[in-house]
Amino acid sequence: MIIRQRTSWWKMLFIWKGSVLKKIVVQLTIITLFSLAVLYLNGKIYDYKVKLNPTVFTLIGLALAIFMGFCNTASYDRYWEGRKLWGLLVIETRSLTRQIFSLVNDSSPDAEDKKREIVKMIAAFCWSLNYQLRDKYRPEHLAHLLSPEHLERLKGKKFIPIIILDSIAEWINEQNKKGNMDTIILASLDQQLNQFSNIAGGCERIYNTPLPFPYSVLLHRTVYMYCFWLPFGLIDSLGWMMPMIVLLISYTFIALDAIIQEIAEPFGEEENDLALNNICRTIEYSIFEQAGIPQKELQPPNSYCID
Predict the structure, then answer these.
(1) What is the b/e burial string over 120-145, where b = at least 16 CB atoms within 10 angstroms of the residue's CB?
(2) How does residue 305 score in pLDDT terms, banded at 50, 70 and 90?
(3) pLDDT of 210-248, one tens digit each?
(4) Cα 199 vs. chain centroid, distance in angstroms?
(5) DSSP string, 156-202
(6) pLDDT at residue 264 tops 60
(7) Which residues, 6 or more positions from 171, have their beta carbon under 8 angstroms from its beta carbon?
(8) Considering only CA atoms, which of 81, 80, 86 is closest in space to residue 280?
(9) What whole-number distance in Å separates Cα of residue 93 and Cα of residue 123?
(10) Which one of 64, 79, 225, 235 is most buried, by most CB atoms within 10 A?
């Protein structure tokens, strides 16, 4: 994901990175060339003059704009829900880390090391959820956070974040049996783990339930049919300016169609998808600071970066 500071209006006109223009430049070129051909032939196909009233395109364009607004809202809801879930994950990881160090009264010699190991597992949960949503998980991705025993436990498993949560829950249960916490603290920590599970389930719901396919197909087909018939409706009223106006209208509709398709899948790795890697780095850096874990290889996350 690209996060930019607001720049001048002039620079905004020429920004390429993060724009969907590079995805649709071929389509816009084809439509422009087609418009020039219609202009050259004066709106004729062989000897037949194609007469289309601009009013028709006004009515169709209005209906299309309303439908695109609905699809855009649905897509942005998915994007924003995903962002809220990951924002909540940032909060919950910090809260769980604080509770582990302040509420678990383990006085054994290796208590601090065990707690830091659990903090690393919390970071591993976040990274594994990231990898699961992007279909990129490999055991070596978590080797710097988990012990060989925990990595072995993950072999052959599909829902890696949940298995990691189970390991954290086992440690909490062990601390309770040793008398290092009372039942109130146990219930609080269990509630935190339930929140982690809810976040993972919410992300899986977005990932596994895309926008209904008929909506995408209908919108895509209608946009392109509208843009390719538009030159015949504007040739008589606009003359030589017709290709430029068709290009402008086509850019608006086709670009919005591309944006809708892109943000509807917020966990991908395109430029405008959620910056999951940066969020995971933020979580890791933050909870490692809380736990006093050395961060020689970790750099403070940069808010203005590409994921």
Answers:
(1) bbbbbbbbbbbbbbeeebeeebbeeb
(2) very low
(3) 888 888 899 999 999 999 999 998 888 888 999 999 999
(4) 14
(5) T-S-HHHHHHHHHHHHHHHHHHTTSS-HHHHHHHHHHHHHHHHHHHH
(6) yes
(7) 114, 118
(8) 86
(9) 8
(10) 235
Hey, what amino acid is at 155? K
Q: State whether residue 106 is helix, strand or coil.
A: coil
How high is the mean pLDDT of the chain? 87
Give the Cα separation of 273 and 256 in Å (integer): 15
In this structure, are residues 75 and 266 in contact, taking their beta carbons and an 8 Å threshold? no
Q: Which is nearest to 284 in space by CA: 99, 124, 98?
A: 124
Instruction: Tell me the sheet residues that pair with 48.
Output: 45
274 close to 83: Cβ distance less than 8 angstroms:
yes
What is the C-alpha separation between 118 and 169, in angstroms, rounded? 10
Q: Alpha-carbon distance 59 to 195, whole Å?
A: 48
Amino acid at 209: T
- Going by their DSSP bridges, the two strands 48-49 and 44-45 should be labelled as antiparallel
